[in-house]
Here is the input.
Amino acid sequence: MLLKRMLVCLLLLVGFYHTSNAQFKKYDSTLKVAKAGYRVYCNNKNPEKNTVTITPVGFEKEAREVSFEIKGRIKSAETDDINNDGFPDLVMYIFTGVEANFGKVIGIYSEKNETIGPIGFPDILDDPKLRVGYRGFDEYSLMEGNLMRRFPIFQQVDSTKYVPSGMVRQLQYRVMPGENGAQKFKVIRTFEFKKQ
Here is the structure.
C-alpha cells in the first residue's frame, strides 16, 4: 500500500513538472521581414537563466552572432520595423516567476542591416502609477510598429493576498531615441477596460 502511494505521488510529481515546462520547449526560430531578419535560439531548460543566441540573417555586411544570458525563458518572438527606420527589428518575450507569469521584453534593432543593438525596456515596477495592481500574467504583441502589453489588474485583499479585479490594463510602447544614440521603449498610452 505504501509503495503504491509513493508511486502515485511520483507520477503526479513528474506529470506536474512536465506540464509546467510544456509551454517552454526549446526556442529555435528564424523571423524575417522580406530578406532580412534574425535566427533566435534558446534551449529554455532552466527557469532561472538561459543563454540566447541571435544570428542576423540576410544583412548586407557580416553582422556578428551574439549570445547572452537572460533571466527566464523565451515564450515567443516577433520581428517588425518598430523604430521606423526601414529595417527589421526583433522583440523577444521573456517570462519569469514560479508560474512563469512575469513578462519582460528584450528588443534588438538593426542598424541599416549592418550591425545590431539593444532596445531598452522599462521595468513596470519602477513606475509608481503603472505597477498598481500588477501581478504578472502579461500578454504581448506587435501592432503597426507599436508594442502592446496587457495584464489583469489585481486588488490587494490583505498584506499577502491579491484577487483579480475584473479589469485589464493595456500599455502601448513606442521605440524612442535614448541617450548616446541608444534606443528605448517608452509608454505612450495606457488605458483600462473590463475583462470580458
Helices lie at 2-22. The first helix runs from residue 2 to 22. The chain has one domain: 24-194.
